Amino acid sequence: QKEVEQNSGPLSVPEGAIASLNCTYSDRGSQSFFWYRQYSGKSPELIMFIYSNGDKEDGRFTAQLNKASQYVSLLIRDSQPSDSATYLCAVKRYNTDKLIFGTGTRLQVFP
Amino acid sequence: GAGVSQSPSNKVTEKGKDVELRCDPISGHTALYWYRQSLGQGLEFLIYFQGNSAPDKSGLPSDRFSAERTGGSVSTLTIQRTQQEDSAVYLCASSSRTGDRSRDSGANVLTFGAGSRLTVL
Questions:
Q1: Which of B91, B84, B86 is nearest to B25 (CA)?
Q2: Which of A93, A98, A103 to mutate to test the interface with B (most CBs of B within 10 A)?
Q3: DSSP states of A75-89 as a string?
Q4: Burial call B65-98: b when 16+ CB within 10 Å, e when fewer
């Protein structure tokens, strides 16, 4: 079992819809969770991070964390074609600064 | 510097040659990471440096890979006797780090460089 798992996609949504991206992790000692966006040929850039159970909102983005079920999700409201990218989930365990990344989910937003 | 700087941006080498990839982190960032990303794949952790602590080398795939960080700043990733399977984009990232692990203030937010694309023929 991989430490961080994501569906590779592609996830296709129409413009204006809500895109829902999911990530599961295996280590219950995981403490912090990060979502990065990576455009084709570019480096990853941080969207947001979360470490408490529940929701965290930042503009059109909402991260949701459920530690009991060991999953974290990213919702993108009012999806735009410019949101088309690969979304990487990353997990940090307690007492280490190493971030483990999933393989990413490719999102396609069509007009 | 303003961002994480990596060089070379592109490197083509012959199988069996050694290569060195360089990373200059954001000024003041104490943590430095190396990841590898093969075509269409996620980020594979290689090594992590934090201040003067011993590096976490748990992700290095073989003893052909090594890295050092001089003066707590610039890092060099060396791959000896390159193989075709080493072809990938090598990404360096840095982050600031507080000493408090009990609460995550975002101190582990990684800023990535543009990467070094390595092609082994």
A1: B91
A2: A98
A3: EESS--GGG-EEEEE
A4: bebebeeebebebebeebeeebbbbbbbbbbeee
**Residue whose entry in the numeric block shows the structure tokens 């455009």:** A39
- B26, B49, B105, B109, best to mutate vs chain A, most A CBs in 10 Å: B109
**Residue B39: count of CB within 10 angstroms of its CB:** 7
Distance CA B118, CA B21 (A): 9
Q: What integer is the mean pLDDT of A23-36?
A: 92
Give tens-digit pLDDT for B25-45. Answer: 999 888 999 999 998 788 999
Cross-chain Cβ contact B110/A94 below 8 Å: no
Cα–Cα separations (whole angstroms), residue B84 to B6, B16, B38, B121: 21, 9, 12, 6
Contact across the interface for B97 and A94, Cβ inside 8 Å = no
Nearest to B48 among A31, A44, A98 (CB): A98
pLDDT > 70: what percent of chain A? 99
Apex CA B94: angle with CA B83 and CA B72, to 5°?
90
* Sign of the dihedral through C-alpha A63, A64, A65, A70: negative
* Better pLDDT: A73 or B1: A73
